[in-house]
Amino acid sequence: MDLGTIVGLIAGFALIVISMITSGSPLATFADPGSVLMVIGGSFGAIMVANPLSRVLGIMKYIKKVTKVPNYGEEKIITTLVNFSEKARREGLLALEDDLEEVEQEFLRKGIQFVVDGTDPEIIKTMLFNELNQQQERHTAGIAIFSQWGSLAPAFGMIGTLAGLIGMLANLSDPDAIGSGMALALITTFYGSIFANLVLIPISKKLEDRDRDETLVNEIMIEGILSIQSGDNPRILESKLVSFLPPARREAVMAELTSE
Q: Which of 80, 191, 196, 225 is least surrounded by CB atoms within 10 angstroms?
C-alpha cells in the first residue's frame, strides 16, 4: 500500500476540517449534500461525456494503481538479463529458450523469444517499442481522465455557486437570508476546489509517476534484449543496465551479480 497517498489524503482532509473548526463557525455551516452532489455528480457526468464508457468504468483500476506501491523488480530484471547474456555467449542464443518459462515479465519473455527465434534486430526493436508506445497511450488515457476531472470539478463548483446566488437574489426581500444564502452559494466552489486539488489532480500526478517508473523498466528490458541479440559483452551490458538506476540502488544489483 502506498502510504504517501493514503496518509496525504487523510492528513489533507483532517487539516481542512480542523481549519473549519478553528474558524469559529459551526462545522455544520460547511455541510451541504446538494453542493457535494453538484460537484461530484456533475463533474463525473461531464467525464462520461468526454470519454468512452469503457475508459470511465476503468477508473477504479487507476485508483488502485495510486494506492499500491508497484514492485517492478528492476534489480532482478537486470540480473536476469546479465545471466542470459552470459549463457548466450557460452551456449548460444537457442539455449535461452530453456529458461523462458521462469521469466515472470511477459514483455521480457516475448522479447527473448524473438531473439531465440532469430528475428531481425530492427524488427525486434520496432515491435518492442510499438508495444511500449501502446502502453504509454493507455497510461496517458488514464492520466487524462483525472486531469480533465480536476479541471471540471471547480467549474461545477462555480455552477453551484451561480445557482445559489440566483436563489439568493430571488429572496432579496428577506435581508436575514442574504448572508446565509451567500455562504451556502460559496460552499459549492469550496467543495470543487478541495475535490480537484486534494484528490483529482494529485492522482493524475501520481499516475504520471507510475507511468515513468513502468516505462523505465521496459526500457531496461529493451536495452538488455537488444544487447543480448547483438552479442554484447555481459560486463558491458551490466554497466549499461545499471546506469538506468539511481546510485543508491546500483550497489544492490552489483552485490547480487557478484554473489553469483
A: 80
DSSP 52-65: -HHHHHTHHHHHHH
- Are 103 and 84 in contact, with CB atoms under 8 Å apart? no
> Cell match 536495452: residue?
223
Cα 120 from Cα 114, distance rounded (Å):
9
> Could you read off the pLDDT of 218-254 as tens digits, one per residue?
999 999 999 998 888 888 888 888 888 887 777 766 6
**Spatial separation of the C-alpha atoms in residues 97 and 39, rounded to whole Å:** 55
What are the residues whose beta carbons fall under 8 Å from the beta carbon of 200, sequence distance 6 or more? 146, 147, 149, 150, 153
Please report which confidence band the pLDDT of residue 161 belongs to, taking 50, 70 and 90 as the band edges: confident
In a domain, 162, yes or no: yes
3-class DSSP state of 260: coil
Q: To 10 degrees, the CA torsion angle through 247, 248, 254, 259? A: 170
CB 173 within 8 A of CB 32: no
Chain-centre distance of CA 117, in angstroms?
Answer: 35
Contact residues for 92 (Cβ-Cβ < 8 A; gap 6+): none
Q: What is the mean pLDDT of the chain?
A: 86
Q: How many helices (H) and strands (E) does the chain have?
A: 12, 0
**208 within a domain of the structure (yes/no):** yes
Give how far Cα 164 sits from Cα of 39, 171, 206, Å: 13, 11, 34
What domain count does the chain have?
1
Alpha carbon 256 to its chain centroid, in Å, reads: 30
C-alpha cell at 77: 530484471
Tell me which residue range forms the domain holding 150: 32-260
CA angle in degrees (0–180, nearest 5) for 96-101-102: 90
- 1 falls within a domain: no
